[in-house]
Design brief:
84% of the residues lie in helices and 0% in strands. With 205 residues, it is mainly α. It is globular and about 50 Å long.
């Protein structure tokens, strides 16, 4: 029981910390919060937490197989760069013009969260690295099915807590954002810059 609790806490803590740096998912939920779309943002965050579970499970179960094939990890980086760039552009279009396409994307919180989470596979190499480290230190013991599921459930809880904090903080500035277009554009600009950087990094590999 103690090992299961430790596995859950480790999954939650490292998921929380790993979700802090700007990325596709937290910037998207931040933008929804800034625009005052709290319910949509909550549905988006729920979808992200759900997809985090199978991605973390894949990382734990197939760690050795994935790490032995570096081309797979390279494709993850290319997919992430593409998604970051496209979502950044969509956020900027939404903030500027509010076109029909971007409005439909913004209003489909859960579906949008599912799609973007699936198209954001860098969670897998992240959890491979974290799991390998925690195993090497002896902190994490996931030799049983219960241990694995406690650990990956913790990853879902951790990212959900972090996204809820993002939504709360974004709501605090949502009133100011309604009169300042650049506040709305900020998440899109950040994602666009990160996407271009990821493309350059991929091409230089």
């Amino acid at each position: 029981m103690i090992d299961l609790t430790i596995a859950f806490i480790l999954g939650a803590v490292f998921s929380f910390l790993g979700s802090i740096p700007p990325g596709t998912l937290n910037m998207a939920v931040l933008q929804l919060g800034i625009e005052g779309k709290t319910k949509i943002a909550l549905r988006f965050a729920t979808a992200v937490a759900i997809i985090e579970y199978p991605y973390a499970w894949i990382a734990v179960e197939f760690e050795s197989w994935i790490t032995s094939r570096p081309t797979i990890l390279e494709h993850f980086q290319l997919i992430t760069a593409t998604v970051m760039t496209l979502v950044g552009i969509l956020i900027l279009l939404s903030a500027s013009s509010g076109s029909g396409i971007t409005k439909r994307l913004d209003e489909s919180g859960f579906r949008r969260g599912i799609i973007l989470s699936i198209l954001n596979p860098m969670a897998i190499p992240f959890w491979i690295a974290i799991t390998a480290y925690l195993r090497s230190t002896g902190w994490l013991k996931v030799d049983t099915s219960a241990g694995i599921h406690s650990y990956v459930f913790g990853t879902s809880v951790g990212v959900m807590i972090l996204l809820l904090i993002y939504i709360f903080l974004a709501n605090r500035v949502s009133g100011y954002a309604s009169s300042n277009i650049w506040v709305k554009r900020t998440p899109g600009i950040v994602l666009l810059v990160l996407g271009v950087y990821a493309f350059i990094k991929y091409l230089l590999m």
